[in-house]
Every structure is written in structure tokens, then in C-alpha cells.
């Protein structure tokens, strides 16, 4: 499975070189074909590392300089969409692989979402809102709610193995989100709402307020701003010690179990249907069909002899 190759490459870069990709998307997983013993083998290649960072550049207390442009919009984690000011973690990238897989299932398989596919994709993946307090783009609450549930966001018709796989993935990410203090995130990373302006407060009344104040020498001095109140929120790195997405292990092993044909510790082997249930591109001709000039895309896909999952 091509996405498994991409997860392996991502894991290798992180564990061996301390580099985080930070832009996992369908267009950034290329398909490279090689001939081995007369047979064509397809290998997944994780490309476009333009937004990557070394681990030394991602301190726990460091906020992103540009708070709303890390990664490709559709595939960003639910947390990074809702709280664009939060630090970016390894788990955000790992979650993006899950969104890539969900996207491909929705696009190429008949599911319980197919009838209202366009609306579902627009709501969960494409929605964006401008936050009034600071102008930052934020994503939908629906993606967060989806990741908090231990059931997959769609039921696949005619493929019980894929259904079971999606259920196992859902159990992983719902366990991850159960370790996160969402309320604390809202308090820490959502700026205070914009205060309404009283229109009847004319210039005369505004200046009269200053006239009533007694001026002192201290009022002319530049003062050190008060120390902001600290909200006690456990860092993701602290709370996520129990999270299955704290590293690649759980998700990677789950993919390997479903594609390798090797028996697990119980002696059970995953068996897929003998005939494919994949269908034509269900996004074709809809408003959610991929296109090059996506306003929320971080970069254009590469074209260097291979082709991407998005083409």
C-alpha cells in the first residue's frame, strides 16, 4: 500500500534525522513505478518537503510565525485547524495520513457518504472561517467531532475488510483525542472576542472621560505590561504519553497488519475481497474535485517522472 511507504519514509526522516514534513497531503505522495524481475512494482514516495522543520526548530513553547498556513487545508489535523496558534506536533502530521486515507476511501469507494458526498467533504474538509478577533482562518468543528468518535466517518459498501480497517483506525485516533484537553486548548489558543463598539459614544463624550482623569507624572511613563494570566493546560507532549499517535508505531503497525498477509499474535490473517471494490473517481465533476489553483494548498504537486495519488 502506497500510503504505508509514505508513513515509513516520514518515520525514517523523523527518527533518523529529526525532520518533520508538516505538509502531508494526497498530492505529496507520489507513485513511483519500478520493474523488478519482470514485474512492475509501485512504490509510494513522500515528496515536497518545502515546509519541513528540524526538531530543534519546534520548541514546545514556540508558536508558528504564520499561524494559519502550515500544511494543506484538507489534510491538516483537527487541532491545527481549530487552534492555528498552537505549536505543531508530530501527532499533527500522523493524523494527516489518516485524513489522506479517509479522503481516498470517500473518493474511490461507494460508502454511506456517497449520496451526500459533496456536502460532507465541504463541511468536514473544505470549510474555513475567518476569526474576527485576529483574522486567522480556522476549520470546522465537524472534523474534531469526527476524530473524537471511535467509529469511522463512513461505512464502505461491499468491503467488510476495509470497514474493519477503518474501525481500527478510528479506535486509534479517538484514543488520541481522549488524551487532549480541548477545553484547555480553547482557553489557551483562542483569542478573546472582539469587544463591541458603542456607536453612541461620540468624540465629545470620549474626550470628556480623559478630562475627568487626573494626570500624574507616572501616567507619562512607559510601563512594563502586566504578566498575562497563565492558563494551566497540560502540553500535548505531556498528556500524549498515553496517546497512540505520539509516534508512528501504532498507525504504521496497523497498516502493515492489514496489507502484509502475515498472521498476528492470535494467528489471524487479514483477508481482502478477491475482487476490487474500487470505483471511478466520485469527486469528478463536483466542486470538491482536486485542482491546481487551490487557495488553501501549500504547494503544487511535483512532476518528476512519477504521479501522485491525486491524479
Describe the structure.
The protein is mainly α and 311 residues long. The model is unreliable at 213-238 and 299-307 (pLDDT under 50). It has one domain (2-191, 233-308). A three-stranded antiparallel sheet has the order 3-2-7. Helix 6 packs antiparallel against helix 10. It has ten helices and seven strands. A hairpin with a 2-residue loop joins strand 2 and strand 3 (39-46). The two termini are 17 Å apart. It is 36% helix and 8% strand.
Keywords:
311 residues, mainly alpha, two-stranded antiparallel sheet, 10 helices, 36% helix, Fungal-type protein kinase domain-containing protein
Subunit arrangement of the protein = single chain
Report Rg.
Answer: 24 Å
Number of domains: 1
Low-confidence parts lasting 5 or more residues at pLDDT below 50? 213-238, 299-307
Please provide the ordered H/E string of secondary-structure elements: HEEEEHHHEEHHHHHHE
Helix content: 25-40%
Give the averaged pLDDT, no decimals: 82
Q: Could you give a short account of the major beta sheet?
A: 3 strands, antiparallel
End-to-end separation in angstroms reads 17 Å
Q: Give the strand content.
A: 5-15%
Strand order of the largest sheet: 3-2-7
Number of helices: 10
CA-based shape:
globular
- Structural class designation: mainly alpha
Number of strands: 7
